[in-house]
Amino acid sequence: GKGYPDLSTRSFVSTLHNAKSTLPIYALVDFDPDGLQIMQCYKTGSQSLGHERNTTVPDMEWLGIKSAHLMEGRHTPASPSGTQASAVMPLTMRDRNCANKLLDTFRASEDPENDENCRELQVMLFLGIKGEIQGVDNAGDLTDWLDTHLPRQ
């Protein structure tokens, strides 16, 4: 990925979803407030650009990275499939402020899927950590991780 999606990227994903509505669309984002905001941008659109609601993918599912993924394999630091310690970092004050604002947004929503988002943000704030996708890959290869975590169709 490339961070916050521009309109062209959101439009592409939305068009793909509309053309193949049975095809599941998954979000794989960093375990930090920005990662959750990126996923929300795809699902509900940009907060500042309400007129772009036709580029949303409300059925997008959050594949990861979640708190449990960061904890997998932590007891064996040399394990290639375990979390790399360097990919787990402390939350900054900016992260904490962003997480709290996002919690308020999720709590104000009627979407029951936001219960998991709130829970994960609360874990993030309680533990004071964030994590990058690179923390669960195997030297740049996410194949094993995806094989384990993608639902079988």
From TrEMBL:
GO terms for biological process: meiotic DNA double-strand break formation; meiotic DNA double-strand break processing; reciprocal meiotic recombination. It holds the Pfam family TOP6A-Spo11_Toprim. It comes from Plectosphaerella plurivora. InterPro entries: Spo11/TopoVI_A, Spo11/TopoVI_A_sf, TOPRIM_Topo6A/Spo11. Residues 1-151 form the Topoisomerase 6 subunit A/Spo11 TOPRIM domain. This is Spo11/DNA topoisomerase VI subunit A. GO terms for molecular function: DNA binding; DNA topoisomerase type II (double strand cut, ATP-hydrolyzing) activity. GO terms for cellular component: nuclear chromosome.
